[in-house]
Amino acid sequence: MILTVTPNPSLDRTYEIPALDRGAVLRATGDRIDPGGKGVNVSRAVAAAGHRTLAVLPVGGPAGGALAGLLSAEGIEVAGVPVAGQTRSNISVAEPDGTLTKINATGPELSAEESQELLATVGERAVGADWIACCGSLPRGLAPEWYAELVARTHRVGARIALDTSGPSLTAALRERPDVVKPNAEELAQAVGRPLTTLGDVVKAAEELRAWGARAVLASLGADGQLLVDEEGAYYGSAPVAGVRSNVGAGDASLAGFLTAGGTGPRALAVALAHGAAAVQLPGSQMPTPADLDTAAVRITDAMPFDRLLTEPVP
From which domain of life does this come (predicted)? Predict the structure, then answer.
């Protein structure tokens, strides 16, 4: 069972349009509404893969009730923590060439009592979890050290924890030794404070995060694939994509694949890549099912060309 924690969830509405023309009245060719938030998406991908998952999240107002209802309809158990503020609603506009424009709301401000209740709920429901995945930005009212406290509490109950966040929240949590951290290239560059232009740069940056406390680093590199760096070494993988329809939630689907495959080693990396590649070819934040996965097309190697330039170097 994989328990997810999403401190700032959302309702996500996606509109598909022929082209984004500012100031014009546009007609959508398709639209959908999905539960949103990185941890929520991990739970959705885990459930779509046929595994049990429990989503812990703050729930506020009608939008929060709608979010919980959508998750339940997908077969996901929800442990909602009532909050006074309103769960946020986000909008994404997708164009045929894969360009995605997102408008993300700020979300509610959590009180000290609500923050502690969220931590307590995770502790109460973590018994029996194989992994706890804590994902996304922190809402107003939660200090950057909140994730560090969650990592510490998770380890005290004997569970493994994967962390997908960035900035001060990531660096503060490293001291508690999360089992896996999942930055993208931009977040990794921000963490180490320098540009990343080659695969070798990414490996060195991942090793720095391990030196600061992360036990393993699963780095998403967009079109360049993914990199896993752990105590066994560094593994690089890529998966072909016929065409990008929407990249919303693709990284979350990738993390779900990694965890459902055990959360360690090249096999888990291959499953992560297959999930990510499948997700970007689906509309909105729809999560892939086993029928969408093509693990045979994934390529994994531990003999990387370290001087290979990234397709989109991070300045």
Answer: Bacteria
| Distance, CA of 105 to CA of 282 (rounded, Å) | 24
Question: Given the DSSP bridges, would you call strands 160-164 and 226-230 parallel, antiparallel or unpaired?
Answer: unpaired
For the chain, which residues make up each domain, given as ranges? Answer: 2-8+39-84+112-314
119: closest CA among 105, 104, 101, 138?
A: 138
Nearest residue to 185 via CA among 159, 166, 161: 166
- Which one is catalytic: 252, 294, 302, 307? 252
- Asked whether the beta carbons of 271 and 261 are under 8 A apart, the reply is yes
What is the reported pTM? 0.92
Contact 165, 39 (CB under 8 A): no
Q: How many residues in total does the chain contain?
A: 315
Superfamily classification of domain 2-8+39-84+112-314: Ribokinase (3.40.1190.20)
15-36 confidence digits (pLDDT tens): 999 999 999 999 999 998 989 9
Nearest to 291 by CA among 301, 281, 299: 281
Residue 113, token pair as written in the block: 């009592």
pLDDT at 244: 83
Please spell the DSSP secondary structure of 211-237, one letter per residue: HHT-S-EEEE-GGG-EEEEETTEEEEE
**Residue 217, strand partner residues:** 181, 229
